[in-house]
C-alpha cells in the first residue's frame, strides 16, 4: 500500500461552519442546506443532521409529502429525528455537533 493510499484512508478533520441566528429554523420547521438538515420540531429543540446516507454516502432529501428523509439511491428512509426507518442503510443519520455562540451556532461537520 502506497503513501497516497494510506493518506486517503486517514480520517479527515471536522469542518467548522457558522450559521447565523437568523438562518436557524423557527419551531415546527425544517431547513435544508447543502450538507445538512436543520430540524426544529414544535418543542423548539434544534437538531442538525447530516445529509450523507450511512449506506453508501448518497445525498439524502426531504420528502414533504411523507414528512421524512429519503435516500434517492436505494430508498433508505429516516424519521425527522434522523432515526433509521427502512432500507439498506441500517443506521441513523449522523447527528452533527453544534454549539451556541454569539450571533448564531457553530457546526462541526465530520470530514
UniProtKB/TrEMBL annotation:
Q: Which InterPro entries match?
A: Rieske_2Fe-2S, Rieske_2Fe-2S_sf, Rieske_Fe-S_prot, Rieske_Fe-S_prot_C
Known EC number: 1.10.2.2
A GO molecular-function annotation: 2 iron, 2 sulfur cluster binding
Report the residue ranges that make up the Rieske domain in this protein: 16-107
Co-factor requirement: [2Fe-2S] cluster
* Enzyme class at the top of the EC tree: oxidoreductase
Q: Which PROSITE patterns match?
A: RIESKE (PS51296)
Coiled coil located at which positions?
Answer: none
| Gene3D superfamilies assigned | Rieske [2Fe-2S] iron-sulphur domain
Q: What is this protein called?
A: Ubiquinol-cytochrome C reductase iron-sulfur subunit
